[in-house]
């Protein structure tokens, strides 16, 4: 892995790693937790199963590939079906602020530290059996699932944006453009406007990272269902 890419070979990943791959010509990334044995536990929208390769109808490698419990969107797949012919990337944890900001695309790293691999795998397998709530692209998506498995952290303010770096990117870029637009009158140079927009975009990503947010709480996976009920709007 390097500053520009988190791409890795299959031989280097280990149980408890947060991995991801890109879908639809790099338009978005799909995240999961590698649990060993060539298997990945991940969270997806029920209406996208089979349509995007998140749950293959037939897998020649593992008979239980694509298994999920009824009324749950957490499933287990083999690594090949998870990647769906895409490249393999490993999400980074505990990165320094300069490295985080340098990686302009969200959904690749966080400043938050990861828990031990046994704890991560335990959370992923527990959620495979018990579910992870309703999928929401901004507040509860596949990256949110993987981040929770790795850190045990949840956002206490449910009305705000979730933990996902991808969601922060989707919100941050338009927000930066919107906030910087009034400055066009004060900055005749296009370069000045671009610089301000880029600065606001980076700040929005930094401020929403779970490693620096003040509205995150540690929740044991066994208490997750009760916590969700208590914190419903």
Can you describe what's shown?
The chain has 233 residues and is an alpha+beta fold. It is 33% helix and 15% strand.
How many helices? The count is 7
The geometry reads as globular
Helix content: 25-40%
Strand segment count:
8
Spatial separation of the terminal alpha carbons: 40 Å
Widest sheet, order of strands:
4-5-3-2-1-6
Class from secondary-structure proportions = alpha+beta
Radius of gyration: 18 Å
Largest sheet: 6 strands, antiparallel
The overall average pLDDT, rounded, is 82
Order of helices and strands: EEEEEHEHHHEHHEH
Low-pLDDT runs of 5+ residues are: 175-184
User: Strand content of the residues, in percent?
Assistant: 15-25%
Question: Can you give keywords for this protein?
Answer:
globular; six-stranded antiparallel beta sheet; two-stranded antiparallel sheet; alpha+beta; 233 residues
How is this fold's topology laid out?
Layout: E1 18-23, E2 28-36, E3 39-43, E4 67-68, E5 74-78, H1 79-83, E6 89-90, H2 97-102, H3 117-130, H4 142-151, E7 153-155, H5 165-180, H6 190-207, E8 216-218, H7 224-230
Antiparallel strand pairs: 1-2, 1-6, 2-3, 3-5, 4-5, 7-8
Helix pairs in contact: 3-4, 5-6
């Amino acid at each position: 892995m390097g500053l520009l890419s988190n791409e890795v070979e299959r031989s280097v990943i280990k149980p408890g790693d947060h991995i991801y791959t890109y879908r639809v010509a790099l338009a978005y990334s799909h995240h999961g937790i590698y649990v060993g044995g060539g298997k990945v536990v991940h969270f997806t929208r029920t209406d996208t199963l089979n349509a995007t390769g998140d749950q293959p109808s037939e897998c020649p490698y593992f008979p239980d590939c694509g298994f999920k419990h009824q009324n749950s969107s957490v499933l287990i797949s083999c690594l090949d079906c998870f990647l769906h012919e895409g490249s393999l990337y490993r999400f980074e944890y505990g990165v320094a602020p300069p490295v985080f900001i340098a990686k302009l695309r969200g959904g690749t790293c966080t400043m938050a530290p990861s828990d031990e691999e046994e704890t991560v795998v335990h959370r992923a397998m527990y959620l495979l059996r018990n579910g992870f709530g309703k999928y929401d692209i901004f507040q509860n998506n596949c990256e949110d699932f993987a981040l929770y498995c790795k850190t045990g952290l949840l956002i206490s303010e449910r009305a705000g944006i979730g933990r996902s770096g991808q969601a922060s990117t989707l919100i941050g870029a338009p927000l930066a453009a919107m906030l910087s637009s009034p400055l066009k009158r004060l900055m005749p140079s296009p370069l000045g406007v671009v610089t301000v927009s880029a600065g606001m975009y980076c700040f929005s990503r930094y401020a929403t990272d779970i490693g620096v947010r003040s509205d995150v709480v540690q929740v044991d996976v066994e208490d997750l269902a009760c916590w969700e009920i208590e914190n419903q709007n």
